[in-house]
Request: fold
Amino acid sequence: MLTPYDEFPVHQASRPFSYIPSTDYSWDDGYFFGAFSADEGVFLATGVRVNPNTDMIGGYAMLNVRGQQHTVRFNRCWRPNFDLEVGPWRLDVIEPLKSLRISLGENESPIAFDILWEGVSPAYLEEHHVATHRGRRTTDQTRYSQPGQASGSISLAGQSWAVTPQTWTGSRDHSWGLYAERAPLAPKASVLPPRQPSDLPSRAFRFWICFKTGEVSGFYHLHETAAGLQCEMNDVFGTPFGGRVFHGWDMAVELAGGSHRITFEPGTRLMKSAVIDLVDVEGGKWRQEIDVAAPPWAGNTLGYHPGSWKDGGTFFTYHGSESLALEWDSFDLSRQPAPFRPYAVNGEDAANMFGEGSAVNDTILGTEYLVRIRTIAPNGHVSHGEGHIELFINGAFAPYGFA
Reply:
């Protein structure tokens, strides 16, 4: 069937856009947007993803206020309406790769907002992500990331925030393709051959950041093995290092490498502060001094993972309505590890089904940080601002003594 996108001469296959050249339930396409203020201790995260093979479009809006995390989740069937809207949530592309409007109208949850998200430097196209298992590609994905700024308004149960570009920063990514298998749409491991050792190591450490400090902005990420090596990995992210720093929109320098010194809250894997040393392709040395501004938020409530919806599903599964399913909940993550348990999946415990993240037994650690940043350029210029860091440390990681 035709979609509005078929009007444009941009096809890369012989079929309409409603046809996807994969029948895998892990094939999806969608966005994440962040708008945040370190001074307010507030982080708004919102996004939507399309899964053509389940015929679902689903998303979320999460507002974290100094550790009090409120999430509204929503989905509907996709093919009856190809617009980027699900019930009260809507995305309008004003200028591609630069300016977008995201809104959540009044609904049964306490969250509403109307945000103009604007890039402050161009989007960074990450190296293509590929992972395989027993000869089958389990990840085959493109992603770009971009720092930005936000303006508009946010409300939460009688509270409201005026969002201005002078005091609110933005982050975002857009990815599409095969990402990762997630229950309940993934096959049971018990009916497949055991996992086969790969010639490539697995990732234990992920550090992803979008930042804006004055006129300096950018994106970079680091991925390392359990031994702390940056190398090619058989993983959903895989790339050892990549990134770029901008001064304004046009002046850019490619980053060639980076290292980290992270301080953690005693006895935990919660980041307290960090120093990141970077080198660009021209040999220039950059440093970022980072301090956490608020308790990190957790992606486990958004809808990606099994047990994040109250019926045990995800925003790719059917929740009883083709036109709109919507629910919301709240969690106190102001002190971490915090009490947390996902909803049951088909009556079974989902606590150990998350994959990414830090859900262990009945507690959780956030992995998404609102941070203050001091950037020191190669010429000694210092700029101040804030950013969004995603930090995963899965299992053992020797550089910091994690077993």
Q: What stands out?
A: Confidence is low (pLDDT under 50) at residues 351-357. The first strand starts at residue 27 and ends at 37. The radius of gyration is 20 Å.
